[in-house]
Amino acid sequence: MSQVEIIQRGIRRRYVVEGMFRACGLSALICGVVFLAFLLITTFVKGYTALQQTYIGLDITPMEEDFDGAVTEETLRRADYGALIKRSLREAFPDVTRRKEKKTLYRLVSSGAQHELRQKLVQNPGLVGQTTTFWVLADDEVDMYMKGNVNVSIPEKKRRFKDHAIELTKRLVQQDRIQLRFNTPFFSRGDSREPEQAGIKGAAMGSLFAILVTMLLSFPVGIAAAIYLQEFAKTNRFTDFIEVNINNLAAVPSIIFGLLGLAIFINLFGLPRSIPLVGGMVLALMTLPTIIISSRAALAAVPPSIREAALGIGASPVQTVLHHVLPLAMPGMMTGAIIGLAQAMGETAPLLMIGMVAFIVDIPGSPLDPGTALPVQIYLWADSPERAFVERTSAAIIILLLFLSLVNGLIVVLRKKFEKRW
Amino acid sequence: MIECSSALHSILYPNRAFTKPPIAKFSLSVRSQPLAGFPGWSLTTGMAFLGALFGCFIAVPIMLFAALGISRRNRVVTRHIERFIRWFLIACSCLAILTTIGIVMSVLFESIRFFRIIPIPDFLFGLEWSPQTAIREDQVGSSGAFGAVPLFAGTFLITVIAMVVAVPLGLMSAIYLSEYAGRRIRTIGKPLLEILAGIPTVVYGFFAALTVAPFIRNNLGFLGMDVSSESALAAGLVMGIMILPFVSSLSDDVINAVPQSIRDGSYGLGATHSETIRRIVLPAALPGIVGSILLAVSRAIGETMIVVMAAGLAANLTANPFESVTTVTVQIVTLLIGDQEFDSPKTLAAFALGLVLFIMTLVLNVIALRVVRKYKEQYE
Q: Quick one: which of A144, A150, A158 has its CA closest to A195?
């Protein structure tokens, strides 16, 4: 073999290696993107059905006897609406007589239905004495069956939704008594142990309050710290120490901030558990390094000529920064702050530590009411064994991701609008 | 009324699906338990503290700016206000130090109390971990042993799996994006990877527990392997994907910092593109890449939600990725969720674990940040 042939063969081999290396890189990138797509698609497929909820139409005839003979506001509130619903179910299925079968029948309707019914009758007492079709929430098992999430092929014993319930549901469908409607409870209610009554409003409000507190605390403090470190501080041991500190804090695991919140805010200062205020303070401490670092970058991007010009015409150093540098660096600082807030919005672990995992039905009305946050709600629902909670969890994830992409969209817009090249 | 134990319960007894957990209730006490030695602290103190906090960081700057506006004509007053503003700025930057001190104090004090009950060697080198206080005599995992080695091993195992996924994928995609990809692929590919970094970890946890773990269990089960439904593999894989953008963006920076002249020299000698990358660029960028990998490791160690949702609770000392292991962060969460007394070793153990976690991540971060800094200075 001649020298040339050896070299040519070598070149061919080297080009093959080159192609393989390049393909490796591309496939690594594709791997990441495919995973992202897979994650988003599976979540969406599991979650979009939660937009609708199964309702059962019942012909209910409230009689005066049901209200102790006299329809007053008090008797309207006190009446046994569960019995009304049961009676109407019995009337709709006169052939269901055995005790066990009746129980199955009653269970098709959500346990929250009586409260809805009470509300409607209290608002409109004129309905007493006449037959009206009320659409009430169906049980989560019925809901899952209607959405095709019950595997009928597995043996009845291993199934929660029994054959008899399926048969009854089918008959309801034949009678046109089942409808899928827009799931308003999901968006207007707090948490519940019953999937069909569980909503995300409580968690969303908790998140909102926590984020508000975070913003109020971390934004001014972060910007002030960044201004000092970038514009005024001389490089000495002390400022070096602060800087190292901030860089390290940015990489401290979030759960450690939760421990800090638990030990200091709750134990030492005696603030109550589970309130969004404490959550917001912990998240503020957590996002502070992020905000400081990005704000400093924004300040550093303002060219020194601006400072020199301001100083040259007699502005004091504070005036230079406040009147000239800060307004120019503001868009950059805003993006940094929003990035920090997006991070805080999706954070779960520190909130678990300070007790925001409690089961809370009421929707918090202020940062001092006990509440959870959206990511914590996702965690709580993910832990629940009911099949219907999978759908709700995915839907809550979709909403959280929508929020986050909205926030990130805002960042992109801000950058585009205010981006300045010096 | 607040009911808090259902999450904990279903973690503790994962096999009992479909049974509603018994609901332990605790009322939201207005005064939560004060720390020993601070009996006087109560809600009023807390409120006072809060008022001071908000006052300091919101009202003060507003007042200062207002005063500055009013006093525009008077130079002497302006100078005084400016001095106040400077002190305010310094105070704000000291908050970072205060936070660090707060973290160290809070984990250290409780840890010391823990180590008074359980000696340090027993904690660091003990092989058995079963912290739950026994409710029944024969309950599993309640002998009150606090040997943390199984937790360290579990954390290590899951971190290794995560890095096995994240390092090759992250590094290769960084190389592809910075060296090969055209402008169009870069403008699409980079943000897409960054989206992975922006997804909340609880979403990854849900995905790992609900999609990846059953997938692994069903598909590897055919190979005759016994796969736990809370296998370390599922949690590690998903964590690897979560960390991928972290590795890739950091390595991307590092690779871009290598001067073009070095590459040109290599091309001039007749090396192909990939040869240049492998033999010239990567060795030159190695310190920076190692630094970014260390940062990624510290992230993986401290990651909580994925492991809480997808990894197990039983402390197994094993290297088998198909078995269930538990981690430091999982134990911190399970020990602290729900009602707690601040004098039981069970609760204090969480702070001791927190201390270990803090020290581990701090050491990794300090080394990594120093390495990256040195590396960047080298080419500046």
A: A144
